[in-house]
Design a protein that fits this description.
By secondary structure, this protein is mainly alpha-helical. It folds into two domains: about 300 residues, Ferritin, CATH 1.20.1260; about 160 residues, Ferritin, CATH 1.20.1260. Helix content is about 50%, strand content about 5%. It has 16 helices and four strands. Strands 1-2 form a two-stranded antiparallel sheet. Helix 8 runs antiparallel to helix 10. The N terminus is likely disordered.
């Protein structure tokens, strides 16, 4: 999201007590956040696009933070009981991260439905205007405190918490994070609540619609909802990996858009209404409940450490900000390779929205090639992350490195189709050059690097055909 747009979209604080107001004012943040407010006139469709871009960046940021947390867990524990616990937690959090990828894809589908630009961006640290985000972006090993943040970010409304009997427990978690002293963790569900309003058709407004922060909340007009966009959306059958928990919802009208957005919101925070007959079932399947379960089981730091000794916010940037830890030595090239493959994954995902879904044999189509390559990059990132977490952050350091997940200078794809394929080709050529410089006989990762280079050369051959077509 551009800095210009971000300056126009802020959270509007709800009424709070005088003491809370003083504490939050001292911290420079609202104590309680309720809904986003625009300070310039903005039409309903653009309002939806702006909020969906925020939602997309949040889903993307949560996905990589959860992945980093999952990869940080060390299954090499001293007892079978601890090994089993760590393996379970790692599986739960990695699964939530994959589901966040499904949420990211669903948001792109809704943007496609209303003809908005796609958004695969996300903030690096530090976040600008952090009040729009659940919490400041942080790649960190899993701790009970970081789990507390994830629980609060994914939690449902106050009314739902009361109905589930979780109010007291959540208050304890807030106290742990010192939320009463100006520290703020915003609910992800607030963004989706506002987007749902924009797709909920209400009474027609008589006369000209007055836009701006004080205007009625008009809905996205029917003419802006484009059913013919469906072939350009991505589906769970192609991207869901056969996992029913990975929600990738398409939409062709107002009702299906509401269903898709509600499904994403419910899977994250749990029930979104207090009178839902299936409130317990929705709670059980939510990210909120799963994080809460891990939080309850996770030990305090004074007990035992399930996570490896890895860096927080590792970076290849030689002028890294104070919150980042610079990677040096052998790990640098591996981190650069991980960044490159991360960029490749994002561009494969983005490009797939530019190609209409084929009606027959989708696996042998250009879009099918993008899907296949994207899956390959998911596995590459997992492998590279595991390697980085065995390499010292700096020569002689006892702290290990980790995948930086640094954003590239651009994720914009070229206008012409052949040039989009050239963009993928250029990244493959860069990867091959980097891998060849890393290869050394007898090194532990030699087999992986050779396999990666071979796969890249095969993909290059396919790309040359697509470029020449």
């Amino acid at each position: 999201m551009s800095l210009r747009l971000r300056s126009k979209l802020t959270w509007k604080a709800a009424e709070v007590s005088a003491s809370a107001s003083l504490k939050s004012a001292a911290a420079g943040r609202p104590a309680v956040t309720e809904c986003p407010s625009f300070d310039t006139p903005i039409a309903p469709r653009e309002r939806a696009v702006a909020l969906l871009h925020v939602g997309s960046e949040i889903e993307h940021a949560l996905m990589v933070q959860y992945l980093y947390a999952a990869y940080s867990l060390d299954e090499d524990q001293g007892s079978p009981e601890r090994r089993a616990l760590v393996k379970k937690w790692k599986g739960v959090i990695a699964e939530i991260a994959r589901e966040e990828m499904g949420h990211l894809a669903t948001v792109q589908n809704i943007l496609t439905l209303i003809g908005g630009p796609l958004c695969f961006e996300r903030e690096d640290y530090p976040i600008i205007d952090a009040n729009l985000w659940p919490f400041p972006f942080e790649l960190e090993p899993l701790t009970k405190d970081s789990l507390a943040k994830y629980v609060l970010a994914e939690m449902p409304s106050t009314e739902v918490l009361e109905k589930l009997g979780l109010t007291a427990e959540i208050e304890q978690i807030k106290q742990r994070l010192k939320c009463d002293e100006g520290v703020s963790v915003n609910r992800v569900g607030l963004i989706y609540g506002e987007v749902l309003k924009l797709f909920t058709e209400g009474p027609m407004v008589q006369g000209p619609v007055v836009l701006g922060a004080t205007a009625p909340y008009p809905f996205v007009p029917a003419a802006d909802i484009q059913s013919d966009s469906l072939p350009f959306q991505v589906s769970s059958s192609a991207w869901g990996l056969g996992n029913k928990q990975i929600l990738i919802e398409t939409a062709h009208d107002r009702a299906s858009a509401l269903s898709a957005l509600s499904g994403v919101s419910v899977q994250g925070e749990g029930p979104i209404t207090v009178d839902d007959a299936g409130i317990r079932k929705e709670f059980e399947g939510s990210h909120f409940r799963r994080f809460l379960d891990v939080y309850r089981e996770f030990p305090e730091e004074t007990s035992w450490s399930p996570a490896r000794n890895i860096a927080s916010n590792p970076s290849t940037n030689q002028d890294a900000a104070h919150r980042a830890q610079r990677i040096e030595g052998e790990a640098v090239r591996w981190a650069e390779l991980a960044n490159l493959r991360y960029r490749m994954l994002l561009l494969y995902l983005e490009h797939s929205f530019f190609i209409e879904a084929p009606t027959t044999d989708p696996t042998r189509s250009p879009r099918g090639a993008l899907v296949s390559w994207a899956f390959g990059e998911m596995y590459n990132l997992r492998s590279l992350s595991e390697i980085l977490m065995t390499l010292p952050l700096k020569p002689g350091s006892r702290t290990m490195a980790g995948p930086p997940f640094e954003m590239p200078y651009t994720l914009s794809l070229p206008l012409r189709d052949t040039n989009r394929w050239r963009a993928h080709r250029d990244l493959l050529l860069a990867s091959i050059e980097l891998v060849e410089g890393m290869l050394a006989p007898g090194q532990p990762q030699e087999r992986y690097l050779r396999a990666l280079r071979a796969a890249d050369k095969t993909a290059l051959e396919q790309l040359e055909v697509l470029i020449g077509a």
